[in-house]
Amino acid sequence: MIPVLSVENLTKMYGPKKVVNNVTFSLFPGQIFGFVGPNGAGKSTTIRMITGLTLPTKGSIRICGYSISKSFKKAIENVGAVVEMPQLYPYLSGLKNLKLYAKFYNKAATKRIPQIVKLVGMENRIKDRVSTYSLGMKQRLGIAQALLNKPKLLILDEPTNGLDPNGIVEMRNILKVLAEKENIAIIISSHNLAELEHTCDVIGLINDGRLIEYKTMQEINKIIENKQRIQFICNYPNYAALQIKKKYNLPCKVVGNSVIVPLKENNLAVVVSYLTYKKIKIYSIKKIQKSLEELYFELLNSSRPSSSIL
Ligand SMILES: Nc1ncnc2c1ncn2[C@@H]1O[C@H](COP(=O)(O)OP(=O)(O)OP(=O)(O)O)[C@@H](O)[C@H]1O
Ligand SMILES: [Mg+2]
Q1: Which domain holds residue 191?
Q2: What percentage of the chain carries pLDDT values higher than 90?
Q3: SS3 99
Q4: Atom of ligand 1 at shortest distance to CA of 46?
Q5: Backbone dihedral angles phi then psi of residue 109, each to the nearest 5 degrees
Q6: pTM for this model (two decimals)
Q7: Residue 131 and residue 16 share a domain
Q8: For the chain, which end, N or C, has fewer CB atoms within 10 Å of the first or last residue's CB respectively?
Q9: Average pLDDT estimate for 174-178
Q10: Is residue 308 within 8 Å of 295, Cβ to Cβ?
């Protein structure tokens, strides 16, 4: 299968500074790629190169097999993008905005408007003026605008920035429909890691211009599972820790009236029976799981450049 997007050794220099440094990754139909990293890491610059807004210093970008430098038009006609705030005419209705933009493309784009309006869930408000829209509605209209050209790749730079929790969930649902039903590949750059965890199939972490991790959500979930800890709140935590160490050779940590053990759920029953057999009273059992956000900070804070925790 040809990737919708393939980026190879992509590099951008501003003066002597490499703001994007040898970035390589591919994206396939229906995949949602979450692009994360601290402020100034190089997300928007990478996105600007993929959307043709700025030229790479080095490296290649292919969209649906077409090189953006050699066949710009053929490559870029497969891309729809909302980079930061969508550009909309506030005194026109949402529908008029879409009709205006559709004219840049072809008649087919105008014909698709009702279907797109439905996809982004704006049927009830599309005839109202954009100036009366909430931020979430403006973002949805921006996505509708980006879909007019029937793109195979949709690029959204911080689409949930400023949205309330309700708006974030709505945005997630729209993106999932676009990926699952329309088979569109989507890139989202965002600082909302909890949200990306629920939306994305792949996560790429960029720091200082380098793509330091590129993992599927399954791989990330496996890592999170392996880092899982179980907390037993019990009457004799020090004694419990000693027993677990002796019997199972597991590193235990005593915190207050509890003992914390790196333990998989399928081994839990055995340990519980053993502690009960040792006359330890267990008052409660809690699963302690890392979030994507915690993994992200672990990685960024790690001082060794070659280390990898994802
Ligand atoms: N036109 C430009 N001229 C010079 N430097 C630039 C230019 N555009 C971006 N930069 C620099 O490139 C680096 C990467 O910026 P970029 O906007 O890609 O980061 P980002 O990951 O999108 O950050 P944020 O999360 O804040 O949006 C920053 O150090 C920025 O100052
Ligand atoms: Mg940015």
Answers
A1: 5-215
A2: 72
A3: helix
A4: 18
A5: -65, -45
A6: 0.87
A7: yes
A8: N
A9: 93
A10: no
